[in-house]
Amino acid sequence: MIINIDNLLRDNIKNIVPYSTARDESKGKKVEIFLDANENPYNTALNRYPDPKQQKLKEKIVHNQQISIKNLFLGNGSDEVIDLLVRAFCTPGKDKIMIHPPTYGMYQVAAQTNDNEVVKINLTPDFQLDVEEILKQSNDKVKIFFICSPNNPTGNTFKVTDIERLLTKMNAIIVVDEAYVNFSEKPSWTKRLLEFPNLVVMQTLSKAWGVAGIRLGMGYASERIVQVLNSIKLPYNLNTLTQETAINVLDNIEEYRQKVETIKAEREKLFVELGKLPVVQKVYPSDANYILCKFNDANATYDYLMQKGIIVRNRSTQPNCENCLRITVGTPSDNEILIKHLRVYFI
Does the structure show a pLDDT above 90 at 26? Predict the structure, then answer.
């Protein structure tokens, strides 16, 4: 199937003229005195507006990747990328998005905020995509399918062949959310970006890079999709502190690698120790920085851990996740304390 991105876009978005900032208009010119943006002229280090195009940060992000800056969009967390995609491709009250419960909840929130119906195709009992049912339910009203891989909360990565099939068979934008890809041994879909014009890959600095507080999400896509997202985003969607902090964080590649390897090693230890507990029925393999674990009684176990000062996420209400808690991999000390309390807990 040959997919034309413009045919998927909302009509009013196709030729939208983006807001032009003062910095856009002075780009490439030597400027010594700034009297164009009604800023406070006295230097506080933050009295000037941030770079609306985030050029230095984008150069840093793509430095070691075979991806052009033209294929990169930066958002205020991945949530902004999700929101803008829905607003760009889904006409309110008319178009739909598709999701695969259990999955990340913001896809549905973004759709409902934009007055778009959400089509839900549950994962199979072994937490894989139900490709046949997805294709069966797909039609010209379904404009976006959000795929979280590694999936939140199940922790598994979906089959490459399944996603390939959806990319080629669905006349829709396929968004692969790779928030947890740094903890996986599987390759990123960014490596195949140019093969599929309808592919969008989301990543973040919140998880593996350890800076959730700065709110920085990345969207990798075709040049046309990135152009559209840049046209409809808020002019200064990433503040100066976020941009500067991200650049500094990305310079500390060795620290990042050490922490990721430690988390992955702790994940495997936690997987083994949880599996030994009488209160645990099943521990699901994970490619992320958390583990989904089925307990005899998830609600009672959740309350017990809360009493001990430990907070986990109760996912029992999600499809195929009855009596399941999602446990983030903590520090070695955090994990030891968790296991210590669960060893003496019986229900």
Answer: no
Q: Using DSSP, state whether 95 is helix, strand or coil.
A: coil
Q: By percentage, how much of the chain surpasses pLDDT 90?
A: 92
* pTM for this predicted structure: 0.96
SS3 for 265? helix
101-107's contacts with Cβ under 8 Å and 24+ in sequence apart are 101/318, 101/319, 102/151, 102/153, 102/154, 102/315, 102/318, 102/319, 102/320, 102/321, 103/146, 103/148, 103/151, 103/152, 104/146, 104/148, 104/152, 104/177, 104/179, 106/79, 106/82, 107/82, 107/146
Q: Which two tokens stand for residue 122?
A: 């549950």
Question: Do 5-17+51-251 and 254-343 show the same overall fold?
Answer: no
CA 112 from centroid of its chain's CA atoms: 18
pLDDT at 297 over 90: yes
- Rounded Cα distance between 87 and 10, Å, is 8
Residue type, 231: S
CATH of 5-17+51-251, one of 3.40.630.40, 3.30.70.260, 3.40.640.10, 3.40.50.150: 3.40.640.10
Structure token pair of residue 28? 């490439």
Fold category of 254-343 in CATH: Aspartate Aminotransferase, domain 1 (3.90.1150)
Beta strands across the sheet bearing 324-328: 280-283, 290-295, 324-328, 313-314
Distance CA 285, CA 155 (A): 7
3-state secondary structure of 89: helix
Domain ranges across the chain: 5-17+51-251, 254-343
